[in-house]
Amino acid sequence: MAYLLSVNVGSPAPTAHSDFPTTSIDKRPVTGPVAVAVPGPRGTTPTGLRGDSISDVKHHGGPDQAVYAYAREDLDRWEREIGRELPGGVFGENLTTQDLAVTDALIGERWRIGEEVVLEVSAPRIPCRTFAAWLDEAAWIKRFTVRATPGAYLRVVRPGSIRAGDPVEVVHTPAHDVTIGVAFRALTLEPDLLPRLLAADALPEATKDKVRARLRPSGSSASPTP
Q: Which residues form a coiled coil (predicted)?
């Protein structure tokens, strides 16, 4: 059964690689239960986990990015390639999962974690220069993009508390085939996949608006389809 290997939170630290003076990408595993709640709009309450911070609240956080999950198996592949240890939380993820196919998770899929919390898969993580500077690996954004195992942002459907070791069970799968991997490749590498994304109702509205804009004929000023 899939489970949480660690639950990770971070605090602001100085950075010169962001539009903001600090970054909270350095997440560290915590012991004991962690409260999970629906955050406020982006720019207000930036994260769904108590004790966690997001510094760049302009581009991150809000209900559609309440929690970020990354698979331990994908971290292990990166460890072998990079040749250094990558502990849980190092990619800025709140949840480091074990035996869960995060890249194959469907947009709108729901996970029950422990006895209380239900989270919904919303979108893939798109790498940024803060992430690249934090990892300090050559051509990191390109390498991360080509690998196409971006991890998943999640919404909070039912709040509660979680902790390392909690089982993760898929309790709902939507009736489409748009996975985290497909969405990531469409948005970054394979624009021919973009029309497929509109079948995923749970994809964030801001992302769907960007998809519609990219699909409009060049020079068109038509408003996005509601």
A: none
Domains: count for the chain: 1
Give the model confidence (pLDDT) of 94-133 as tens digits.
999 999 999 999 999 999 999 999 999 999 999 988 899 8
State CA 183 to chain mean position distance: 12
Counts for the chain of helices (H) and strands (E), in that order: 6, 12
Task: Determine the straight-line distance between the first and last CA of the chain, rounded to whole angstroms.
Answer: 40
| pLDDT tens digits for range 126-154 | 998 889 989 999 999 999 999 999 999 99
Report whether 180 contacts 150 (CB < 8 A): yes
Write down the pTM of the prediction: 0.92
Let me know if residue 15 belongs to a domain: yes
Find residue 68's DSSP bridge partners.
153
Query: Which residues, 6+ apart, have CB-to-CB distance to 205 below 8 Å?
Result: none
Give the Cα separation of 7 and 84 in Å (integer): 21
Q: CATH number of the domain that 87 lies in?
A: 2.40.33.20
